[in-house]
Amino acid sequence: MKGKARSLPMSYRLAVTSRVLAAVLGGYIVAALASVSLSSWVPMARADAVVTGMLTSFLAYLGAVIWCFACRTALRAWLGLALPCVILAVVSGLAYWMDRT
Amino acid sequence: MLLALLLCYAGFTALCLAMDRHHVELLGRKASLRRRQGLRLAGWLLLALSLWAAVATAGWESGLVEWCAVLMLSAVLLVMLMPYRPSLVLSLAGLSLLACPVALLAQ
Amino acid sequence: MKEGFRQAMAWLHTWAGLIFGWLLFAIFLTGTLAYFKDETSHWMKPEIPARSVSSDVSLNVAQNYLEQHAGGASRWLIELPTAREPGLSVRWQQTPTQRGERGQFTEKHLDPQTGAEVQGRESTGGEFFYRFHFQLQMPYPWGRWLSTFAAMVMFVALISGIITHKKIFKDFFTFRPRKGQRTWLDGHNAVGVLVLPFHLMITYSSLVIFMVMVMPASILVSYKGDVRGFYDELFPASTTPQLSGQPAALAPLAPLLEKAREQWGDGRVARLTVNNPGDASASVVLVRDGSDRVVHDFGSAVTFQGVSGQLLGATPQASLPRAIAGSFFGLHMGHFAGPLMRGLYFIFGLAGTAMIGTGLVIWLGKRQLKHAKAAALPFELRLVQILNIASMAGLMLAVAAFFWANRLLPLGLTGRADWEVNAFFIVWGLSVLHAVVRPGKQAWFEQLALAAVLFGGVPLLNALTTSYHLAVTLAQGDWAMAGFDLTCLATGVFFAWAAWKMRRAGQVEGVSRPRAQPMALEQEAH
């Protein structure tokens, strides 16, 4: 990570950009889904559940951001976020479906 | 808050002395293993006492906040003072311990 | 990034810290100044008297005034005097033209004894720093989004910094002065680690404060889009009753103070909101003073019927999640803090600001070493250098300019308050230009020296332009005014010292600096 900006290959720059996007956008989606999942399932009054979901969402965001920069490739950053997104979406969807029936 | 501050400062100084490099810095010589262990124990004990002092006077809500504040303040004071006035650091720690009973009674 | 976890976190910390460091420095500095916003406002509007009057008397005064001047408003807001803010301020809101919109607010400051409108010189006062630190002078709601995003980056930087700091326990008490880059890093680590509880609290709490705005997903899902419903469930005491259209005289408000105290078992009322004054459906919400408890009591309110005085409701004991959220609010704002604790908040806030500042200096310093022999810095480093100078020294100059403008601008000038703010931004802009045209070390020295003169000169300026100078304020025991003058003086002395160090470093540079230790730094898991 030296300051020799001119000699950094384009592939490196693209990889970094990709990770940043994953962290900022993907991380937000993970955090939002985490808050929805938690507030849907935690056994509290509705307002309290929602507050709990929001309070903890930033920890999920943090985890997502750290993952995006700690993992070995930029692709893994995205895949590593996609998986929890799917799981959380399923969890939230389950709560929604149970609510309906 | 004063008692908690005095105890914290003394506690941190003890924990500091329990480290070889700072023991040399402050007292000019290395400490034996026994001594370092003793200092470490004393340090943690003093910090625990300072938590008790803060909570006992102000309750858990305010006491915990005051304790954190006092913790950070005493640590900063110690670290900033040490490279410039190492002997003062030690005298302050000694004075703090001596002043504790006074602060306790004054509450 | 094929290196280890720590290396990756070091990279993240370094770059997140750089890109957002300039903004975060400004946020931390102005936020820290905001802890004394009432005192700052008092200094900036010295004409408003600091007279302490009982809550009951002030409330009667306020009610009379509002009934005369704001009879048709949809809502009245009354802020009762407190120890730090001895003024009585009233606001009223016109009925918004569309539902859900915010009606126009009018604000007046009253003399709590006579009820007359008090006109201090037109100035935003300390409120400017308070609002700036989360709104960034940007239109609603963009500033809040940006500052909250910056807070998230700060959180990431803190955690990645902790992960990166391999010797966090071994180096806990370590500070080695007079060792160049090593000292800067020790300093950065010291203000970071030793004050870490504060930094983590401030950062996470700032996320919590705007969490409804930035993370509304769970509300939208659980309440099916009815955000209003969420607020009503959260703050049952503050629901605005429907306007009945039947006029009815509002009962005297002062007796309600005692009734509220009975409900709480103690405590005092900080402010009242009167909904639909003059209507049969009027309700009065009394909110408890936040300085009673650490956990921000934005729920602890008592509501009475405005005409009959009947108790309509009181907020129940807060549930755990609400108490936690309330704690974050309360800890961040520090309303509960007495003078000593407030002083500590200020010190810790400065520590956070210094943590960011030292980080920016280190970032550049390390890379500058590699170009020590070159004639000029490469473009990217020069850009960082300019931004460092302007965002730190330049910002301080802007703060000083704000205070100088307050004393120098003519009292009758229209838009005076805006011009004070303009002075802040104009000087900040000029500092950028100055940093562009002057070489690095000179720019630092010149701006720091100017800051020393401007801050150190505040007490003198005060004495020359007003009659509230140190000799008077110290004699009268007006600690807010005197404290402000003295703090500015101390700040001036600090900048003078900093400028002197800068000059000395520049002189020694050519003699023995090349002995810098890049090797030792590389070992720091960077």
Summarize the structure.
The complex is a heterotrimer of chains A (101), B (107) and C (526). Chain A has 101 residues and is mainly α. In chain A, 83% of the residues lie in helices and 0% in strands.
Overview of this protein structure:
The complex is a heterotrimer of chains A (101), B (107) and C (526). Chain A is elongated, with a radius of gyration of 17 Å. Chain A has one domain (29-100). In chain A, 83% of the residues lie in helices and 0% in strands. Chain A is an all-alpha fold. Chain B is mainly α and 107 residues long. Chain B is 88% helix and 0% strand. Chain B has helices at residues 2-17, 20-27, 33-81, 86-106. In chain B, helix 1 (2-17) runs antiparallel to helix 4. Chain B is elongated, with a radius of gyration of 14 Å. Chain C has 526 residues and is α+β, with helices and mostly antiparallel strands. Chain C has a seven-stranded antiparallel β-sheet with strand order 3-2-1-4-5-6-7, with helices on one face. In chain C, helix 1 (5-34) packs antiparallel against helix 4 and helix 14 runs antiparallel to helix 15. Chain C is built from 20 helices and seven strands.
Mean pLDDT of chain B: 93
Number of helices of chain B: 4
Q: Count the domains of chain A.
A: 1
Number of strands of chain A: 0
**What is the largest interface, and how many residues per chain?**
A-C, 35 and 40 residues
End-to-end separation of chain B in angstroms reads: 9 Å
What share of residues are in beta strands of chain A? Answer: under 5%
The radius of gyration over CA of chain B amounts to 14 Å
Give the assembly state of these chains. Answer: heterotrimer
Shape of chain B: elongated
Compute the number of structural domains of chain B.
1
- What is the chain-wise order of helices and strands of chain A? HHH
Strand content of chain B: under 5%
Residue share in helices of chain A? over 70%
